[in-house]
Write a structure and sequence with these properties.
CATH architecture: 5-stranded Propeller
CATH class: Alpha Beta
Distance between the termini: 32 Å
Number of domains: 1
Strand order of the largest sheet: 4-1-19
Radius of gyration: 19 Å
Order of helices and strands: EEHEHEEEEEHEHEEHEEEHEEEHEE
CATH topology: L-arginine/glycine Amidinotransferase, Chain A
Helix content: 10-25%
Largest sheet: 3 strands, mixed
Length: 366
Amino acid sequence: MIVNSWNEWDPLRHVIVGKADNCHIPPPEPALDAKVPEDSDMKGSWGKRSPETISRANELLDNFTKQLEGLGVKVDRPIPIDFSEPVKTPDFQTQSQFGCMPPRDVLLTLGSEILEATMSYRCRWFEYLCYRPLLQKYWELDKNFRHEAAPKPRLTDDDYHPDYLSEKIGESKRLEWAAEKFFVTTEEEPLFDAADILRFGKDLVVQHGFTTNLKGIEWLRRHFRDHRIHTVNFPGDPYPIHIDATFTPLRPGLVLNNPNRRLPDEQRKLFNNNDWEIVDAAQPAHNAPPPLCYSSTWLSMNVLVLDPKTVCVEKSEVYQAEQMDKLGMNVIEVDLRAAYAFGGGLHCCTADVFREGGCQDYFPNQ
């Protein structure tokens, strides 16, 4: 068996780690503009990232790969395409693409299936091509492997609310909209990023936000008919993109939650009724993200669980490491902060291929 992974914590044996080659800051587009914080140095910047930063990010990703291999984890790497190439379809065009540092955004592994997400950014429409050689290899080696791809969206202007294209919205208005579940993506067609989905065996927890809409969640429900799909949202997040810097399962019965983006009480019932503990994550060690970085300081939570007792934590995130130690986890420090700007943290830059274990029901009381 080559492909098998049902949750976020069973012993990891095979993983994909991204690359920073030729990564670009994409030009403005509706989904991207809504994501970039209004005070970010990303505003108005686009083009290929500097050779020095690309080299440094790749050095860190290569070192992380060696660390994992030293722990007995098999690692595959994507084959980057030319991200400087513009994208043009009958419905949209954009002058460059993004990169392939964060495979978690694109690929969802559930059991013996790897699903390519629709993606909601125009600049990331062709990113799946970086992983096709690997998926083809898995298909040839594993007769049980299912390679699936969700319908590619058209990504016309109808997919985005024009209200989010204003130069200055303000955080209070963004928080108000988040509480009302009014996001930049409309319900024109199914949209979802794989990084909005957490796997709990028979149950999938999916964030409704900027990158995943309700039609995307309904598509997942119809596709994974043997699973229960739970929609969550986090009203404290003015930029709700990808769940893995907000809600982080560590092992059966234990989840970290961003204290600034707490899961609403109604949505906690699934966990409370099944004796799961939701604890506030430790504060980040940094007051600001690295230069030209899309993500928030809460990448401190973006950890990679190797097994129920072992977790990889970015080495500068000392408070998160201390908390993990107190929670009974063995901490493996990984230097990755200088690669954050290329797509995220330790969870983002990886995608499961094989974890030991099968599909279990962790929430029998529903």
